[in-house]
């Protein structure tokens, strides 16, 4: 018997990209072309996609892809798809204008443009997100492919991967207990089989299932597609895959077996920092580091509230601004995100659930830790932001509707147990911020085709609506003094808009304060900074100790289709 072909040597190298945002939300930020020749990563200037051919030295920014996320290739590798402005769009790899594939998304999502010409993606189903497919054109009919197993507590199906046979579909499953698993189904069956605990799975051309686990590890195991089982032991391929809200998802495999994946710098922790209006920085506490997000100052400026994740759980911590140790506030849920202070500082509200995604309910807890959490509002649809209106003590909640895919802003009056629509349209509304007197709401919307900041009365009447940004804007935050609105422009500059509210609202001037591009900014719809009571400095998140923000590892021949046997880890 002739011996099989010799295993080509695995060639591994690292590519470092400075000053790109951390992986956002749960979508993944890296893609590789089907032939393995080109790598794409989000996070370039203005949120553009970065493109690098393997035979070239560096990444270049791809015009027309501003605020792009979750890139993917067309089946022939000639075009790159991505999400932006609540749409799936595509641009030629060689450059050119973008075109729309899907014109209204239920959420910013990961998708696959499969060989059969369909887009496999998330759609709204009964009880949560499921997998569907549609032709790659605007207005195409969506076919639902998976059904949540509610008896098992499933709440989300995501991250689809159609195998080369055109009928076997891999996807992620989350349940209410926080479990994350990889499942497989046959297109058209609407039933599925759980394969293994994991977050994201891809099928390698040598017949292996390659998947991540919640601890940031990448594994590979032989996969019997017909029998829908893994055969043999899984082997460790890589570690330190960056975590997202859903878990580590950031890797891709080309048809020639090339593997590309993001890794966290070994020291890639974050720290909180003060930044003045000129961009000068001063660490809050150089000894306190972690995976921080959404820092928020108490109304009197004496305490910092921040979410901190360990990759498997996210909890809220409170730390005095004058110094001293931090205290963990939350203990009852696995995921505790999007925190906000009540106007009097006595309460902290947040979104919480047992899964690690932010699809939980709205809760509150005494800020001094003296009492247990109480649920304020069950969330029928996923929530992504929330905050208080001063004076009235009403709550603003940003949610996603199932009918048209647009994010809406709801209002729940003080003492009430239901929320009513405040800002609801066929467009995306997000990042609400109330004025200190409670009369006005600043928010962002993509009604113009890109994200812009506007102001409306707190009554929610859109008959009177004033623009704040004109060249693009996101994540507005009203100054506690009431005379300014701060927001980020498309180039990640922090902009100060000086405003008046009497007798009517008006913007007097706008100017860029400093570039925030190398801070951790998360995403277009999540504010990751706050403003001190005097309006003269900002609380922001930065990477600690010079940690690199974008490290991509390329492993050539990692899953070479000429070698079907298990291989040593690259």
Mean pLDDT: 86
- The CA-CA distance between the termini, in Å, is 28 Å
- Main β-sheet, spatial strand arrangement: 1-48-23-22
Overall shape: it is: globular
The total beta strand count reads: 48
CATH class placement of the largest domain: Mainly Beta
For the sheet with most strands, the description reads:
4 strands, antiparallel
**Low-pLDDT residue intervals, each spanning 5 or more residues:** 19-26, 401-406, 565-570
DSSP helix count? 0
Topology-level CATH name of the largest domain: Neuraminidase
- How many domain regions? 2
Helix content: under 10%
Oligomeric composition of the shown chains: single chain
* CATH architecture descriptor of the largest domain: 6 Propeller
Strand fraction equals over 45%
Write structural notes for this entry.
- By secondary structure, the chain is mainly beta.
- The chain folds into two domains: 11-266 and 549-556, TolB, C-terminal domain (Neuraminidase, 6 Propeller); 270-546, TolB, C-terminal domain (Neuraminidase), CATH 2.120.10.
- It contains no helices and 48 strands.
- Strands 1-48-23-22 form a four-stranded antiparallel β-sheet, with no helix packed on it. A four-stranded antiparallel β-sheet has the order 2-3-4-5, with no helix packed on it.
- The protein is globular, with a radius of gyration of 23 Å.
- Residues 19-26, 401-406 and 565-570 have low confidence and may be disordered.
Layout of helices and strands, plus pairs?
Layout: E1 11-17, E2 30-32, E3 38-42, E4 49-53, E5 60-62, E6 69-73, E7 79-84, E8 87-92, E9 99-102, E10 112-113, E11 118-125, E12 128-135, E13 143-144, E14 154-162, E15 168-175, E16 180-186, E17 193-197, E18 201-203, E19 208-212, E20 218-224, E21 229-238, E22 251-253, E23 259-263, E24 270-276, E25 281-283, E26 291-297, E27 303-309, E28 314-320, E29 327-328, E30 335-341, E31 347-353, E32 361-366, E33 374-377, E34 383-388, E35 395-400, E36 407-412, E37 420-423, E38 429-434, E39 440-445, E40 452-457, E41 466-467, E42 474-478, E43 484-488, E44 493-500, E45 506-515, E46 529-531, E47 537-543, E48 550-556
Antiparallel strand pairs: 1-48, 2-3, 3-4, 4-5, 6-7, 7-8, 8-9, 10-11, 11-12, 12-13, 14-15, 15-16, 16-17, 18-19, 19-20, 20-21, 22-23, 23-48, 24-25, 24-47, 26-27, 27-28, 28-29, 30-31, 31-32, 32-33, 34-35, 35-36, 36-37, 38-39, 39-40, 40-41, 42-43, 43-44, 44-45, 46-47
């Amino acid at each position: 018997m002739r011996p099989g072909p010799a295993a080509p040597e695995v060639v591994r190298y690292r590519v470092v990209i400075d000053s790109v945002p951390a992986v956002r939300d749960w979508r993944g930020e890296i893609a590789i072309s089907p032939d393995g020749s080109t790598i794409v990563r989000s996070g370039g200037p203005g949120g553009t996609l970065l493109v690098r051919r393997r035979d070239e030295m560096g990444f270049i920014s791809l015009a027309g892809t501003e605020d792009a996320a979750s890139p993917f290739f067309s089946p022939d590798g000639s075009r790159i798809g991505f999400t932006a402005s609540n749409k799936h769009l595509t641009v030629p790899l060689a450059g050119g204008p973008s075109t729309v594939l899907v014109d209204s998304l239920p959420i910013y999502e990961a998708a696959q443009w499969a060989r059969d010409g369909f887009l496999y993606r998330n759609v709204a189903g009964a009880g949560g997100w499921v997998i569907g497919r549609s032709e790659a054109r605007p207005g195409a009919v969506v076919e639902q492919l998976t059904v949540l197993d509610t008896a098992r507590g499933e709440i989300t199906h995501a991250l689809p991967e159609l195998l080369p046979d055109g009928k076997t579909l891999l996807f992620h499953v989350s349940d209410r207990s926080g479990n994350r698993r990889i499942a497989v189904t046959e297109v058209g069956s609407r039933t599925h089989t759980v394969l293994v605990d994991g977050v994201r799975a891809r099928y390698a051309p040598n017949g292996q299932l390659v998947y991540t686990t919640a601890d940031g590890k990448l594994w590979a195991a032989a996969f019997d597609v017909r029998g829908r089982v893994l055969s043999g032991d899984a082997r460790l391929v890589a570690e330190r895959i960056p975590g997202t809200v859903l878990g580590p998802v950031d890797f891709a495999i080309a048809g020639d077996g090339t593997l590309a994946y993001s890794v966290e710098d070994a020291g890639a922790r974050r720290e909180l920092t003060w930044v003045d209006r000129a961009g000068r920085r001063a660490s809050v506490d150089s000894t306190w580091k972690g995976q921080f997000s959404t820092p928020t100052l108490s109304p009197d400026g004496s305490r910092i509230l921040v979410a901190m994740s360990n990759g498997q759980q996210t909890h809220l911590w409170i730390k005095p601004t004058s110094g001293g140790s931090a205290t963990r506030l939350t203990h009852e849920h696995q995921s505790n995100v999007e925190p906000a202070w009540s106007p009097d500082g006595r309460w902290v509200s947040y979104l919480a659930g047992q899964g690690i995604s932010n699809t939980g309910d709205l809760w509150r807890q005494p800020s001094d830790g003296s009492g247990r959490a109480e649920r304020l509002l069950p969330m029928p649809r996923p929530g992504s932001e929330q905050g208080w209106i001063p004076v009235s003590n009403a709550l603003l909640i940003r949610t996603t509707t199932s009918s048209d895919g647009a994010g809406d802003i709801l209002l729940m009056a003080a003492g009430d147990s239901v929320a009513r629509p405040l800002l609801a349209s066929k467009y995306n509304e997000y990042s609400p911020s109330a004025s200190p007197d409670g009369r006005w709401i600043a928010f962002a919307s993509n009604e113009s085709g890109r994200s812009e900041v506007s102001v409306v009365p707190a009554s929610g009447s859109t008959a009177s609506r004033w623009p704040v940004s004109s060249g693009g804007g996101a994540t507005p935050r009203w100054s506690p003094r009431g005379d300014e609105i701060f927001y980020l422009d498309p180039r990640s500059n922090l902009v100060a808009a000086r405003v008046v509210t009497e007798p009517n609202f008006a913007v007097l001037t706008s100017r860029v304060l400093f570039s925030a591009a190398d801070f951790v900014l998360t995403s277009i719809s999540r504010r990751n900074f706050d403003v001190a009571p005097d309006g003269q400095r900002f609380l922001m998140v930065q990477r600690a100790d010079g940690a690199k923000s974008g490290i991509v590892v390329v492993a050539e021949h990692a899953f070479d289709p000429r070698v079907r046997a298990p291989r040593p880890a690259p």
